[in-house]
Amino acid sequence: MGVVAAMVVAWFSRQREFRADAGAAQYMGQRQSMINALARLGNLDPGELPKTVQNMGISSRPSGILALFSSHPPLEERIQALQSRG
Q1: At 83, is the secondary structure helix, strand, or coil?
Q2: In angstroms, rounded to a whole number, what is the distance separating the alpha carbons of residues 61 and 50?
Q3: What local confidence, expressed as pLDDT, does residue 53 receive?
Q4: How far, in Å, CA of 42 to CA of 22, rounded?
Q5: What was the pLDDT predicted at 44?
Q6: Could you read off the pLDDT of 35-80 as tens digits, one per residue?
Q7: What is the dihedral sign for C-alpha 75, 86, 84, 67?
């Protein structure tokens, strides 16, 4: 049961990230600034990121079953979500 609970918690965490991105874009008054920031983060070599960011897996893209346990959605999905908001 702990495995299922961990997947549910991770899913909620990913949803919060999408809402946080949308909120930041709204606060800045334009989506493109947030899109640019996420794109820059995605272009960094993981070795360049602070250890806390590396450990959260924000810039990495887990695949398969590991993606279900990721606390952050892939940057590409976050950018796509911002681009599709109207």
Answers
A1: helix
A2: 17
A3: 61
A4: 18
A5: 67
A6: 999 998 877 665 666 666 655 555 556 677 878 888 889 899 999 9
A7: positive
The answer to whether the CB of 77 falls within 8 A of the CB of 14 is no
CA distances from 58 to 17, 28, 65 (A): 10, 22, 17
Which residues contact residue 46 at a Cβ distance below 8 angstroms, ignoring those fewer than 6 apart? 54, 59, 60
Buried b / exposed e along 61-85 (16+ C-beta atoms within 10 A): eeeeeeeeebebbbbeebbebbeee
Tell me if 81 sits within 8 A of 29, measured CB to CB.
no
Q: What is the pLDDT of residue 18?
A: 96
Collapsing DSSP to helix, strand or coil, 59 comes out as coil
Residues 86 and 26: their CA atoms lie apart, in Å, by: 11
